[in-house]
Design brief:
This protein has 147 residues and is of the alpha+beta class. It has one domain: Beta Polymerase, domain 2, CATH 3.30.460. The chain has a six-stranded mixed sheet with strand order 3-4-5-2-1-6. The protein is globular.
Length: 147
Amino acid sequence: MKKIIEPTLIFAKQIAEAAAKIKAIDVKILDLRKVTSFTDYFVIASGTSDRHVEAIADSIELELKKEGQRPIGVEGHGHSQWIVVDFGDVVAHVFYQPVRGIYALEKLWGDAKTVRFAGEKKKPALKKKSSAKKASKAKKPKGKTKK
């Protein structure tokens, strides 16, 4: 049986991908359907400067406009620390990176599940030292050696 993907989730993923396309940092989609009734998803992203934050928000608006979607409202342009692009069922929050931690929306909405999307950057896996390297380091004596 095929899993049916709801249109609102597809829409949230389009918003996340539009942000990722402009090199937004740490883009996340939060599924709020079981947590609140005012929206279905938050898309949260960060920029490295005021201009970057503006560019991410503009990219979201432009990419979704191509799909025939216009936001209900946009708040924060000109201040560029936090821009909210409200599409009703999906709300995008674009933060200046240092400000994102202050508001901590991911913690505030901690009961929401995180949804993966195609443009998501995966965190690099930690490299483990091979057991051969560990064994060779363990065998080396410390201090002076006899000849």
